[in-house]
Amino acid sequence: MPVIENAIILPKDQLPRQWHNILPQLPEPLGPYKAPDGQDLPAGALAAIFPPQLIEQELSDQIWHPIPEPVLEAYAMWRPTPLVRAYRLEAALKVRSRIYYKNESLSPSGSHKSNTALAQAYYNAQAGIHRLTTETGAGQWGTALSIAARHFQLDIRVFMVKVSLDQKPYRQAIMRLMGAEVLASPSELTQAGRTARAQDPNCPGSLGLAISEAVEEAASRADTNYSLGSVLNHVVLHQTIIGQEIKKQLQLAGEKPDYLIACHGGGSNFGGTVIPFCPEVMAGEKIQLLAAEPEACPTLTKGKFGYDYGDMAKLTPLLPMHSLGSDFLPPSIHAGGLRYHGASPIVSNLVKNQVVTPVAISAKDAFAYAKIMANSEYIVPAPESGHALALTCLKALELEKQGRPGVLVFTLSGHGLLDLSAYEKAPE
Amino acid sequence: MPVIENAIILPKDQLPRQWHNILPQLPEPLGPYKAPDGQDLPAGALAAIFPPQLIEQELSDQIWHPIPEPVLEAYAMWRPTPLVRAYRLEAALKVRSRIYYKNESLSPSGSHKSNTALAQAYYNAQAGIHRLTTETGAGQWGTALSIAARHFQLDIRVFMVKVSLDQKPYRQAIMRLMGAEVLASPSELTQAGRTARAQDPNCPGSLGLAISEAVEEAASRADTNYSLGSVLNHVVLHQTIIGQEIKKQLQLAGEKPDYLIACHGGGSNFGGTVIPFCPEVMAGEKIQLLAAEPEACPTLTKGKFGYDYGDMAKLTPLLPMHSLGSDFLPPSIHAGGLRYHGASPIVSNLVKNQVVTPVAISAKDAFAYAKIMANSEYIVPAPESGHALALTCLKALELEKQGRPGVLVFTLSGHGLLDLSAYEKAPE
Predict the structure, then answer these.
(1) In order of start, what are the domains of chain B with their CATH numbers?
(2) Interface confidence: ipTM more than 0.85
């Protein structure tokens, strides 16, 4: 039997049936959201843009949330995703550590974003909504929500950060192919967009600004809701399917992880990966939970914890989170999905309480290790995932130097096939 | 248990261990290859560009060829590939027929081409070769051979048809990322390329011309061999892994196919899909084996059967095949992988003897059904695969009209994520 089985595959009937809400298990309570003016958030404030079930999830004190059957059926298109032992990457690095990657690139959209996109589209359709607006940075979220909207028969308008849209024409093409309307942000359609363009006609846009545009439009139309691809509690909740599967897969393989690593932009991929492991880590188990963020947008390592707006135009509630300031315009780095000034309140809370540790990764390292992975595992990582990969490799090399190889698991949040232009322009 | 299992998955230990050589089972013997001057091919003529084991496979009278263990291990990176019931596509078409697709897009290169690329790179490495040259049209073959060369530690130079290279910048990017050298064909490096450019400085290139360049260079260097992505018997042989898996999977599902459909460019994807079914079809079993070729390059439906050159500069042996003429310059259609004047001698033989049937498909239909598949199955088919898909859908609709739904299986030879620009410019 010469065939190496390098993937730990869960059978379909082992697909987790619930999402894991960590709110009631956090080391300290999450502070309440506040209205943009700093006052208590009025009851019903979120209802203008979100359906009731997502609002309930946002503030829930119940740990387990059953996944609705239509969402579970949609997940089964590609889930459970494999946990793959990266034998050839280990050999390329010359390390004795065992490296595993959770391959979230196999979803219909090519990234983990489909996990929450399908849930959000479903709940909106259930609530009688016909149309969604959203923002997208690198395009992964826009692609995922376009497919989810198609699946649950909703119309969708995507505000795509202008610099990313210019860098990634194929992203626009796939969203359009799936039936979405795609606009460059800042656009002329919203007050937020017009203001930004008046200040700087060449404004490259940012996630914070695109969120302003999408929220402004959703708030002003009764048939339209807004959908966010990261940051908020309900988004992080849906992504916990990732970590739950990893946990089962590691048990199946008889492995105990030393490091669990994911990239961090808004926090949903990282939160979704580590949350199922947080209760035991808080109880003293020795697993290092590391968030890999870009040096160019160091929200968790350099940002301040406090209340801040989720968007540039200050339309969203004030959230208790790490932030570089809602008017921070991150440089045009090639990992567009990590260009966000803020962070998930849940992840911020876990950082503040030292359950998880953020590490800043240079774009140079992210692309260098992404090339090594492409040349050994024959998978092109998304530039975002390259940050998690780079941190994993750097840790494995460090352990090798110290003569104590370990078990490292990272989430490959998506593939980079639609980001290949970024590789051509990557820093050397 | 709400989760629908729509994929027929073979366990890893069911991976076929042999390739199926149909040469000794053909309805009439394949005519011998001839030297470019029409004389008998001198012994050793192929040895200038191919390793001994591929030459042996090219002319073998043995039905079963064991797959070498290093190739089998490489296959196990992604094989066996799933056979997927396209429930949502059936619903979108409103047909009662059961449609299955063999998903070859899951390979490291995103297409079936990896099946032969890994085998060819392995045999060349075994023969002490250090460097490969090849041509590529759409870029699928070039990507596959770049990855295979990397896996078996060979250098590689790819001559990419100029019009395709311009249409598909991401293809060049992924080959380079994998370590290949990529040149636009016609180039200045070969006599064949210089001649074409002298005749027409804006020459868009063709597969036949790119083959001339790659063969010319390989023939003139001892450390360098040439590798072909389709047409030849050994290439078709390696692709029979596809049809063998389909056969096992249909048995597992208890299905008897009425139609087995694949697209046809040079013939390896089509041959690989149908060959394992040919012996029983020749024995009278009622399965229609349909080759979907583009109307713009109708080699099998409009070409003449006879001896012709495999390339434009007439460097290759004369092959007994259907051909539009070796100087035929196909129009710049968006399914670059189907732009070839000739056809596999094996497939030509099967067409001539009415074991298989070719059908020409318009680019308009190919893209129209590809969009329907993208919007229902959330997979972007390669434009090449769109031809097989379109023929499958047209047949399913025809069966529906006749009130006799059936079972249709097609090979999704690759994904179109690196071909999205073609979708943007697709004929309406």
Answers:
(1) 3-15+69-111+233-424 (3.40.50.1100)
(2) yes
